Amino acid sequence: MSETNEASGHEFSGLSDVVSLTSAPQQIADHILSGIAVGALPEGTLLPGERTLAADLQVSRSSVRAALLRLERLGVVERRRGRGGGTFVSHVNPEALAPMAGRIDEFHAERLNLLDARAIFQNSLAATAAMRRTEVELAELRELAERYSERAEAAAARTADARFHFAIARAGHNPELVRMAIDIDTRINAGFRHDPFSRKLFEHAVQDHAAIVDAIEAGDAEAAGRLCEEHFRSTTMPPHS
């Protein structure tokens, strides 16, 4: 499996924690629309097929089909038939999103609270890793930090970043901490990674990762936690939020 396909599968898996078994088509549409509105799903993005989305969301194919039909009527997705077809994100005019402004604003407000909670929680995860990590886990963290530094493209970088931080969670030797990390990540991303990306943020993150690993290696729990929290705030949250 290629890294691109691997990343795509990761982005859409685990959505059952976000969309319940009784989710209405509008709830599914809102999650996809929010991803489009914040730029996580740029123009031309191919969405997974109905069967895949239904399985990932643990909803019926009819609910997914109805959600995609609503988005198509809004003009934010386009369905193409034949070989190479599927459902693609269209060029979205701001006017098309105007009727959804209230729901999008609500999504952003909830997400800011979740981002704040994640930054605080990641502080504890890194501090715990500094006290409990093994040499093997430390080597894995260095390898993952290095791998991230080679992924200077948005989708691949976001996936590599997630793997690095989940490895920090695992180094705490508490499966409940890992479960909580995955849960909050899933709630934030709603299946599509929304974290901003730019060359400047990428280079900042490369330096942050190296400093976090150094603190974990030194067993400096306070520094590891502080650096990790600052990393999440500076690379994923708007200034002054």
CATH architecture verdict of the largest domain = Up-down Bundle
What is the CATH level 1 assignment of the largest domain? Mainly Alpha
> Percent of residues in beta strands?
under 5%
| Domain tally | 2
- Overall mean pLDDT score? 82
Please work out how many helical segments DSSP would assign: 11
Characterise the protein shown here:
By secondary structure, the protein is mostly helical. It has two domains: 3-92, Arc Repressor Mutant, subunit A, CATH 1.10.10; 101-236, Four Helix Bundle (Hemerythrin (Met), subunit A), CATH 1.20.120. Helix content is 68%, strand content 3%. The protein is built from eleven helices and two strands, in the order ααααββααααααα. The chain has a two-stranded antiparallel sheet with strand order 1-2. A hairpin with a 5-residue loop joins β1 (77-80) and β2. α6 (101-132) runs parallel beside α10 (199-218). The longest helix is centred in the middle third of the chain and has 32 residues, at 101-132. The chain is elongated, with a radius of gyration of 19 Å. The N and C termini lie far apart (39 Å). Residues 1-23 have low confidence and may be disordered.
